[in-house]
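User: Teach me something about this protein's shape.
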Amino acid sequence: MAKQIDYAYGEKHQRVEVLQCLDLTVFAGESVAIVGASGSGKSTLLHVLGGLDKPQSGEVLVCNQCLVKASGRSPNAKQQGEIRNQHLGFVYQFHHLLPEFSALENVMMPLFVRGITPREAKAAAMPLLEKVGVASRAAHKPAELSGGERQRVAIARAMVTNPDCLLADEPTGNLDQENAAAVMDLLFTLQRSENTALIIVTHDYAIADRMEKTYTLTDKRLQLSENPLVTSAGQ
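Assistant: First, the predicted structure itself:
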């Protein structure tokens, strides 16, 4: 939940308002798309929701825990990291996999942060690599994988902690049409099976139409719009 979020770049005369009095509530298992013109602040909003950027006013709550708060008592960096690791998963346009580690090791990383043993982490990560269809590539490093395979590994890494909410920033923006469709099908399958909330920033209205709700970011605020495919036939 984001409440009364204000966010701006720059100082004084160069200050650029990006988000203003913005509110957003997303429920467990809900899928939400955020669309809008380039430069409207979509990615900035996602960073604020994930506690990666601090707003000038307002707060973000995740599972009733304060992730970031502009004023008053706010979690420190360590506490924010723990909340993110416990409740949130992130998928970006570019996979951001660690190049020196294998696909399996990349998926295991968030579990190491929790202090889970390598054996337990592997036991959790391998089934996810199977689910996303790249178990046979578990020992390969990112440079040895195709673009679609790398993004599948990134999705497995985001889901390995069983997050309550998955934040995805243009997750198919760097893929061809066939791989993009496969990745989105995979995201929806995992999201539904795990009852994970899904928030996607996208410029692709075909993707947005598959979500339960679509918000357009315009004039620094979110406007809810109807999703014709969901309304008429469900996802």
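Now, about its shape. The chain has eight helices and ten strands. The longest strand covers residues 16-24. If you'd like, I can walk through any region in more detail.
User: That's plenty for now, thanks!
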